[in-house]
Amino acid sequence: MIEGSGDLMRVSVFGAENDIGRQVVEELLCRGYTVLVFVTDPTTVPVAWGPRVQLSTGRLTDPVAVGAAVGWGEAVVNALDPRLSRPGACLVEGTGVVVAAMARHGVRRYIGLGSPAVGLCPSERPTARVRVHRAYLRVVHPRVHHRMQQMMTMVTGTGTGTGTGTGLDWTLVRFLRHTGGRGPGLKYVGYFGHDDLGCCAAAGDIAAFAVTQLLDTRHVTDAPAVSN
Q1: What integer pLDDT is reported at residue 61 of this predicted model?
Q2: How far apart are CA 42 and CA 108, in angstroms?
Q3: By the 8 A CB rule, do 98 and 33 touch?
């Protein structure tokens, strides 16, 4: 049974099994949010979270279980990412179920992860590094590339990401590669080709930026890229 508590903003988190997802939960707790994590395997939840975190378990493709988790909250942070998750995970289908549940329950704010390997911002001028990364992912990891593209399209509701077809107030935090733990803080937030963005960002810094976007409207229906 999912319970609510207090008057603080309630945030439902998906993907808490991976490094960035765990950092997202830690950041939310540190900032005073009320948190629910939806996981397929409850043994992946750190014992240290204890009663500070509501726990919901089920299949990502189960509309009832996912709907209960989404409906409990006022915003969703989805840290599911083909680069971070085990092979075979139903990330595309699961993201579709999350988006559908948000529409049913009237939850609009969505924060997710993305990659510049998938073209999303029409005004962006990819650097040589990004062009190589895109080509590498398409050729060497075509399934990962395709899943990322599908997930980002499901959230934005369009093939290019320039519209708001799903009705969500979405923000996708993009990065090329991530390192573990927390770094010195993000040095760059912007767009490839316009800003001096690097190729790496620490998981903790990605998570901290993602959490700040819950109340920051500057990047609604946008996909800023970040790096240390």
Answers
A1: 94
A2: 27
A3: no
Q: Which residues contact 144 (CB under 8 A, 6 or more apart)?
A: 82, 83, 137
Angle between helices 19-30 and 203-212 (to 10 degrees): 50
Closest CA to 71 of 10, 15, 29, 21: 10
Q: Identify the CA nearest to 20 among candidates 209, 187, 168.
A: 209
Task: Say if CB 35 and CB 77 are below 8 A apart.
Answer: no
| Model pLDDT for residues 145-200, shown as the tens digit of each residue | 677 778 888 898 865 444 447 789 999 998 888 888 888 888 888 876 655 667 78
DSSP state of 135: H
Please write down the long-range contacts of 153-156, taking CB distance under 8 Å and 24 or more positions apart: 154/92, 154/95, 154/96, 154/99, 155/78, 155/95, 155/99, 155/110, 155/112, 156/120, 156/221
For the segment 76-101, what is each residue's pLDDT rounded down to a tens digit?
999 998 776 665 568 889 999 999 99
pLDDT for 215:
93
Alpha-carbon span 89 to 85, nearest angstrom: 7
Q: What is the mean pLDDT of the chain?
A: 83
- Residues 105, 83: Cα–Cα separation, whole Å: 29
Largest CA distance in the chain: 50
The pLDDT of residue 166 is: 78
Q: How far is CA 26 from the centre of its chain?
A: 15
Closest by CA to 56, choosing from 40, 44, 74, 80, is 40
Q: Residue 40 corresponds to which amino acid?
A: T
